[in-house]
Amino acid sequence: MKYPAFIDDTTYLSMDASASETEQLRAMLNNLTRVHLLTASKFENFDDLIHEYIASGVEIFDLETGIVSEVTGNSYRVCDVISPLNLLEKGQIFELENTYCREVVKHQQVLGFPNVGALDYMNCHPVYQNLQLEAYLSAPIFVDEQLFGTLNFTSTTIRSQGFSVHERNLIVLMANAIGAFILLRNKEEHLLALNQKMKRFVGYVAHDLRNPLGTIIGLTQMANKRNTSTKRIHAIIQKIITPAETALEFVSTILENAALSSGKITLNKKTLTAHTLLSNACHAVAHFAEQTDTQLKLVAKQNIMIIGDQSRLQQVLINLLINAIKYSPNHSSVILSAQPSSFDTKHISLSICNYISAPTQVTPTDDNPVYGSVGFGLDIAKEIIHAHHSVLRINQEDGTYTCQFDLEQA
């Protein structure tokens, strides 16, 4: 696709007879200074930043409407907008195909259309047909080399002189600054999440590791008393084994979680039968389900094949199943299923679904007889799923809880 070219600055200056070249150069310098000051400013939040960038861009480029968008798949969300058009509002979601920005996203490059109506591949576009937006200037916003969305400006007035290279450079600077802010925001949120995870971790250590170690110390002190018989010492040693194994399992889980989080564990991916994977997980937690008379129901065809690390996925499913049993009332059902993904045909969705009729029926406690987790099994499950290039999705609707993630279909 051949798009309109940006006009060389020298040529662009010579096209405007209404102002001297000195005046135009001064205006260009003022615009560059304004953008520089904008990029150097500190903003407390994303909303303030993009609103100021849009407001400045509308004036700098002399275009009526400015938008910062977020693009996900074929979804185009308006993060913020300044426009005289009442049809455009912050938070609106459109199909990407129904926006001019589809061209920017498709080719991931800066585009300027001075006269959309003169372009055969654009004048049939629904935006042009409905709003008659003639001039359009847009740049992609990248966050850590990944496309986030677009910064774009439009107007119902034709840009008879076209767009200059100077204007192209200005919108690139603005889009890059927005992308850099988003990257810093994401890193800050990630650090906050890690901090919260560390706080939970400290809590787990204080509770789950202190108890078995305290028991071991107490039993050891008993065995170390004078005149303790050999038979008594032997009995105490037998009692020490259980809390020692618990502490060892806890430490192993801590190390495993750390290794997964740092990406140091390599998955051993193989072709697996989804039905067998789910069935094995059911057998592994059957004794937990029996204690609350919970029925485990399996819905999966025998011929559904997936790709993944069997032992790691078993770990995920067992953790999710135990949580489902833990938070379900007695005599209820937990459903495991493997179905084609609703997102694409190349993936299979594994899901665990349980129903809670009344949240007050279940009061999770640390001494719950059906759950002996060290506290952060769900964190490990999320890391394993992430290593399989997927995301754990947890939904709640009318008391029905569903945990779901997608795996590559073999």
Q: What this model shows, in words?
A:
With 410 residues, the chain is of the alpha+beta class. Helices cover 46% and strands 21% of the residues. Strand 5 and strand 6 form a beta hairpin. Helix 2 (21-40) packs parallel to helix 6 and helix 7 crosses helix 11. The longest helix has 59 residues, at 165-223. The chain starts with 8 loop residues before the first helix and ends with a strand.
In a few lines, what is going on in this structure?
The chain has 410 residues and is of the alpha+beta class. The chain is built from eleven helices and 13 strands. Strand 5 (135-143) and strand 6 form a beta hairpin.
Keywords:
410 residues; alpha+beta; 5-stranded mixed beta sheet; 11 helices; 46% helix
Average pLDDT confidence is 86
Q: How helix-rich are the residues, as a percent range? A: 40-55%
Low-confidence segments, given as residue ranges, are 359-374
Percent of residues in beta strands? 15-25%
What is the count of DSSP helices, taking H or I runs of 4+ residues? 11
SSE-based structural type: alpha+beta
List the secondary-structure elements in sequence, H or E: HHHEEEHEHEEHHEHHEEHEEHEE
Shape: elongated
What is the CA-atom radius of gyration, in angstroms? 30 Å
Strand order of the largest sheet: 3-2-1-6-5-4
Could you describe the largest sheet, including whether it forms a barrel? 6 strands, antiparallel
| β-strand number | 13
- How far is the N terminus from the C terminus? 37 Å
